[in-house]
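Supplementary Text 2. Reproducibility record for the structural model of the 283-residue chain.

All settings were left at their defaults, and a single model was retained for analysis rather than an ensemble. We include the record here because the model underlies the residue-level annotations in Supplementary Table 4.
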Amino acid sequence: MYIFIKGEVFFFGEKYMKKLITLSFCFMFIVLLGQLEAQSADDVTFDVIGVKLYNEFIPCVGGPDFNQENVDKMMKGWRALNISDDLLGAWGYVPATDTSRFDNGWWELSWESKQAADAAWAEWVQDEEAMAFLAENESVMVCNGDERGSWDFTFHRDVYSFGPMSEDGSFFTEFFPCKYNAGKSSDDLMESIALYNKWLDGLDATSFYAYGIYAGDGTDELADFWWGNFHENSDGAAAGQASWLETGGEARASLEATATCDVPELYNSGVIYDPSVPEFSKS
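Retained model, structure tokens:
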């Protein structure tokens, strides 16, 4: 959903080093995975469309030895650990502006269910090798697993409908916090999404773009749901915004009648774990 736009992958810069806390788990984010079976590059019909997934966000900060080289080395080492087979994918985010609501970066984990996530966490914190690895890398990055938050995540469109992601796994993210307008609900949102997909069908675009909805449980004062836009880069986000403002028409009117969305959180983002891609799978 293109509503507001501002605008490389570099994880959690020095300005986010406000505090170091015990890293309780691995780092994950989903954009392309889900309940996927192995598929060729030409077979991009995802059976995750409309499937509710359980996604967790973990706040992370960089340490004194934080830099891209050390982060890459840490991620390679992490992929060699005993990663749960129930983990569907992993991506990371670093704020792209100085105006973020949050003073940290994020890891997002995706699971089929809360039960799968809880079981994996229970095993992870008992893994001595994993705990030793995290302790050894506290000077690079630390994440607070105890403060993780969860949302029900759903894709409503083939994530490859505008082409593949960059080969290096980088992308640009916009997270819009949205509140339902009076008398509106998720049913109205689904109607708006149908119009949005129809509008997307009419675009002559070839750069990567995907989107998904993070539905809350009503306890978050900031948002009833978050709308996530995943672009190839910030230029693609700006182009999408311009097109939305100019041609959004019925879809834009419907979405704006359904919910009010605030200024988005903007992130430079990257793939950390993708079991379908050798470069980002277990090593």
